[in-house]
Amino acid sequence: MTKKAFTIILSLILLLPVAIFFTVWDYYAINIPKWDDHALKTFIVEYAQAGDWQGKIQALFKQHNEHRISLTRLFAWIDYAIFGHLNYRHLMTAGNLLLLAVIPLWYDLLKKNKKPLFALVPIPFLWMTLAFWENMYWGMSAVQNFGVVTLVLWTLYLVINPKVLPFSIAILLSVVTVLTSGNGLMVLPLGALLLFLSQNRKRFALWIVVSIAEVVCYFYWYTKPESNPESRASIIQLAKGYMAFLGSFAESIPVLDHFKVCLFIGIVLFLVAVSIVSTTLFRIVRNKYSVKFERTTDLFCLGAILFILGTALVVVYSRAGFGLEGLITSRYKIYSVLLLIVAYLYVVIPIRGSFLSPYITAIVALAVTFNVFSYHYHLVDAYNWRKRLVTWQFNWTFTDKSLKYPTDTSFAARIVEKTPVVYDKWLPLIAIADRQNYAGPSRGMTDLYDKTTFSSDTASFRLNNTTFTSQRLQDSGVYLLLSSEKCYYIFPALRTRNTSRKQLFLKQYYFAPGFYADIPFSEMDKGTYRVALIRQQGEETGILFKDEKITVKETRKKEVKVNW
Fold it and tell me: Hey, what domains does the chain have and what are their CATH numbers?
């Protein structure tokens, strides 16, 4: 095989995980705001109606929780200015492209360390996976959480470049990084440390001046947000949470106790990180490198590892109050995978000669295995999350039983682009079912209802089914419909992962039999509700009411204090 043909084949292999990533993303992504996404509508109103440039600057840079999310707001405004509407899928795309932008950096690192293109193959299989599903499908979070990691890495990489232009770009990127997410502030001391170790006094002094200016601007008019729940975890529990955070990429490994495997892998990666940091510092201080770029690699990897370890400290300290299991959630997995990829550099770069290809081949096999595990494990999360978003939008859109879209024509009401949703076809069927107890194809609906158990207490309403076996994806599945004299509510019946490895990997049975829901009364107005099940099977929709009813007494909906 010629070298050119081999390069083409490798390029196609490198594009494969990227293509899979965006294909899966496209299948489940939907233009519906999630939580903080709603703040971007307020920003567009404020920015568009600002009377002068000072007002626009204030709208762009004002605080959001503890962050300055100016990059996200800028992307939102560009999207609105170009298309006339805000589309959250476009923001997700921008964030996912920022995630992708890390791969060229690793390509440059490996190339300048005289490694073949083959050495890059494990990176996209580790980096572009469904393990990051929560950020993938959340407009604001995709730009913020993916963007800050990419920007920190590129800033640290360029700040130690001996040429003037890359260093100038690094200064500009540091500003963008700080205005992307709160932990982007870490790029300032880390950049200073790398320049200090580089013994470049002029650049070090300039970086310090710029950093001080950025910190002063960041905390100008800063208000401390509502604190997270106070952590009641002991030092040992916090340490366990820290290690699990570092090893959270391993959650998709098919074992019974996912937290324990994350904890174990996290301890291993922490020890590897400490080893890399200590040996790297020793080499940098001695400054005896046979190849000049080895020093650049050491400096960059030192900064990247310290960024990961520092972010882990901040997250564990601030989020432990929500429970240690939350520290291995999808939102934070990017740091665990990044630590794994940095460790990969210290495996592959020192290898020379005929040993290189077998080592990389083995690592590629492990990376592909992780990629497959990730999609099989987290597909259920993506499926459930889409259903949550769709039903949330239904519940805030239709406030009475007319099921008519609001006629509000104000500027704020027209900001978000309208998008087709599965419940559009349900609207006439819901009204019919409310009158005659059923609508649409009724085959199997009675059996489905009878095999579903319903229960409630003073705080929530629950349903459970252990026999439903459909493996249809996207919007298919079961939903709960509640009907009172005043309004309707729809809630998703969620699925759980199939724990049978044989069925999961050989037959592609992603879901275990059955479904469940636990719906807090705080999400409903008081009243007596008739209970129906909606079953969506491909293009067919069936709705059935029977005798089940629930009564929701006076409830107090949760009020969350925000600064946006």
Answer: 32-226 (no CATH), 228-350 (no CATH), 385-552 (2.60.40.10)
